[in-house]
Design goal:
Structural class of chain B: mainly beta
Oligomer: heterodimer
Order of helices and strands of chain B: EEEEEEEEEEE
Number of strands of chain A: 12
Low-confidence stretches of chain B: none
Helix content of chain A: under 10%
Low-confidence stretches of chain A: none
Strand content of chain B: over 45%
Largest interface: A-B, 23 and 26 residues
Chain lengths: 113, 113
């Protein structure tokens, strides 16, 4: 079975500063990787996904992530954050064989004005 | 296209009662997954239905059950509620053509007193 580790539970960052949210996964098979964002009192919204191809994936709202197979990581980055980026971010992995996702415990990003 | 809808949005029950939550997937989506989200545990996978059949199941007690109807709408039921069942229950749907992208509903907030 897969597992996902989000190394930071809370990340405070000043507005317009860069941010990186870390995600590592464990799997012995090929995986599909995802980042979701959850705003207060809402469901999860897909930010970006890696299925195959280029290891640098660009998503919505200026976010990007890089798939690193040797380090089994899929870190999320944004060069300049905005107040509206304050939210909970979840990394997820799927083996593609079925439709079961495994989520990390989430990283709470707080952007400080 | 309308998104995933969940009803009710909020629910208050007492210990020992049972509850039924409903999820209507995006039109054309045949897969519906359910998750329990709590502050301490993050998102935990409950089960996934595809074309009225349970295809995957998480590690939850038998008090948690679900079903899917021919129109792909899904319900989950929790019997003999416990205080620890208080959580946000999220439903996600996906299509066969993009089966690795899940679209989430806003969730049902269940409080057990």
């Amino acid at each position: 079975a897969q597992s996902v580790t989000q190394l930071d539970s809370q990340v405070p960052v000043f507005e317009e500063a860069p941010v990186e949210l870390r995600c590592n996964y464990s799997s012995s098979v090929s995986v599909y990787l995802f980042w979701y964002v959850q705003y207060p009192n809402q469901g999860l919204q897909l930010l970006l996904k890696y299925l195959s191809g280029s290891t640098l994936v660009k998503g919505i709202n200026g976010f990007e992530a890089e798939f690193n197979k040797s380090q089994t990581s899929f870190h999320l980055r944004k060069p300049s954050v905005h107040i509206s980026d304050t939210a909970e971010y979840f990394c997820a992995v799927s083996d593609g064989a079925g439709n079961q996702f495994y989520f990390g415990t989430g990283t709470s990003l707080t952007v400080i004005p | 296209k309308a998104g995933v809808t969940q009803t009710p949005r909020y629910l208050i029950k007492t210990r020992g009662q049972q509850v039924t939550l409903s999820c209507s997937p995006i039109s054309g989506h045949r897969s519906v997954s359910w998750y329990q989200q709590t502050p301490g545990q993050g998102l935990q996978f409950l089960f996934e239905y595809f074309s009225e059949t349970q295809r995957n199941k998480g590690n939850f007690p038998g008090r948690f059950s679900g079903r899917q109807f021919s129109n792909s709408r899904s319900e989950m039921n929790v019997s003999t509620l416990e205080l620890g069942d208080s959580a946000l229950y999220l439903c996600a749907s996906s299509s066969y053509s993009s089966y690795n992208e899940q679209f989430f509903g806003p969730g049902t907030r269940l409080t057990v007193l």
